[in-house]
Write a structure and sequence with these properties.
Layout: H1 4-11, H2 15-25, E1 31-32, E2 38-39, H3 42-56, H4 61-69, H5 93-100, H6 104-115, H7 120-140, H8 146-167, E3 176-179, H9 188-199, E4 204-208, H10 213-222, E5 227-231, H11 238-251, E6 256-260, E7 273-274, H12 279-289
Parallel strand pairs: 3-4, 3-5, 5-6, 6-7
Antiparallel strand pairs: 1-2
Length: about 290
């Protein structure tokens, strides 16, 4: 077992960045000494090395974390010394630079460029969400601070909220509940999914972030929902999401409950399905969850 200082030296990831990756992406989950100090094992070091290599080769931190958590320690890591090997375009760089400068006009221009490159379905997984992930990476790397990250993220949320409003007409079918469990405020991915689902004709009741368990149940019962989708953006949200799923299943056994997001895993006793990570794929899967008739 290694202290955080030793883990940083062995993995090539600085202590502050290691803590940021742990907090934001849950790429490692260290044990603790009796005094509360972090301890990392060899598997954690391997995951950190894999994520560092992927990020250095051009992956966004969120993409790298997703790959590593899915078994990335055994990935064939691209060689950053080879020109273009595994490299992805810095899609979010204009957004990051505008956020760093607190340039609201620049932020809006960067979003115009991102969103104006095609249909929503064409850009959400390939451009918009990677750009949002680039904000998280820039924050973790110290290029932007919390306030500038919040400034840009709030602009993204406003755009998504506007797209949600024009995407469909409420009250046309039995609704699909979409939201986040109690304690979770990372809503951009879940809101992006709600937009995609509404564009497919679903009547979406978007409950938003940090929704208490009792409120989920009340919305499911009073809204006569057919499906409920609980967003799980971080591993820390798995437990609260499972509580929501269990409460919904107990209150309305006929309700189809699903979880979606980078950290989604099956709920206990199989009471919830798991949707694909990509927003467009997840939205396409929801209609298939509803039993005929």
């Amino acid at each position: 077992m290694y202290t955080i200082k030793q883990a940083a030296a062995r993995s090539g990831v600085g202590e502050s960045l290691l803590r940021a990756w742990e907090r934001r992406y849950s790429v490692v989950s260290p044990s603790r000494t009796a005094s509360g100090y972090r301890l990392y094992d060899d598997a954690a070091i391997a995951r950190l090395r894999a994520m560092r290599a992927l990020v250095d080769s051009g992956w966004t931190a969120s993409q790298a974390a997703e790959a590593v958590l899915a078994g990335g320690a055994g990935l064939a890591i691209p060689d950053p010394a080879v020109e273009g090997a595994g490299r992805v375009a810095p899609i979010g760089e204009p957004l990051v630079q505008a956020a760093a400068a607190y340039d609201t006009v620049g932020i809006e221009s960067a979003l115009d460029e991102l969103i104006g490159r095609g249909s929503y379905e064409a850009i959400v997984d390939e451009r918009l969400l990677p750009a949002v992930a680039a904000l998280g990476t820039a924050w973790a790397d110290g290029r932007i601070d919390v306030a500038s990250e919040h400034l840009a993220s709030a602009a993204v949320q406003r755009r998504l909220a506007a797209l949600f409003d024009i995407a469909g007409r409420p009250g046309t079918t039995h609704p699909v509940l979409v939201g986040l469990p109690p304690g979770c405020r990372h809503e951009i991915g879940t809101l992006a999914f709600a937009v995609a689902l509404r564009r497919r004709g679903a009547d979406v009741l978007y409950l938003g972030p940090d929704t208490p368990v009792a409120s989920w149940v009340h919305a499911a019962v009073e809204g006569a929902a057919e499906v409920a989708v609980v967003g799980v953006p971080r591993r820390a949200d798995v437990g609260p999401a499972r509580e929501v799923a269990a409460a919904l299943a107990a209150a309305r056994p006929a309700l189809v409950v699903a979880m979606g997001g980078p950290a989604a895993v099956p709920a206990a006793n199989g009471v919830a399905r798991v949707l694909p990570v990509r927003v467009t794929d997840a939205a396409a899967e929801v209609p298939r969850l509803i039993a005929p008739g």
